[in-house]
Amino acid sequence: MSSVSAELDRVVGWSGFGIDQVTLKGHRFTPDGDVFDALGLDKARSVLSFDFAAARRAVEELSWVERASITRVYPDQMIVEITERVPYALWQHGKDLLIVDREGRVLSAAERHTAPSGLVQIAGEGAAKEASALMALLSAHADLSGALQQAERVAGRRWRLHLVDGNQIELPATGEATALADLKAWPDFAAVLAAGHSVIDVRTSGRIAVRTLVKEAGTDVEPRSIRELIMRAG
Predict the structure, then answer these.
(1) Is the dihedral of CA 176, 178, 182, 184 positive or negative?
(2) What residues form DSSP beta bridges with 151?
(3) What is the DSSP letter of 225?
(4) pLDDT tier at 73, thresholds 50, 70, 90
(5) Neighbours of 108 (CB within 10 A)
(6) Which of 149, 157, 153, 159 is nearest to 180 (CA)?
């Protein structure tokens, strides 16, 4: 039967119903070669033997592809239209730099200088899955979200916010919204931010602790004690 099917496939191809032209549409980040490999055109050379449903599923398994459609244009053409996932964050995961979508799905590896612009910068174990929830929380605090340099997931439980002015905010594992509201209501909050290079710790309910980061040769070094801070400051 397989030899009969192969012969029939050749006859259909000779009759003008082969697959001679494939047009790809809608993709930006998905390489053409990955799409053609997923289509498996080398296994079928006519519309008779080509499994359109299986090919569509294979294309949709590619990391960047959210959905795909395949349309036959008789006698010998095929149009593949792709809707890609939207890149959301740039995730520093160990030594790897990865592009992820809003749901935390890894789309591809990245180089910082060639990655899409405007992505949320995140780091730490579990950060990809929790980033969208954090940004939704920060949407009510435009001054913080606008100053956010990187959100670091600590021990897979809580967030440390690195701000562009060198400040850090240590958030609790639960009750982040309340902690941020208390922080914004603190009269000295703006002054501490303006001073820069401080660690603002709101992990304990009803209490705000501030530690100073000492700037040394372009690197922020957190003092281990008040004595060390005094000694460094002279």
Answers:
(1) positive
(2) 122, 161
(3) S
(4) confident
(5) 14
(6) 159
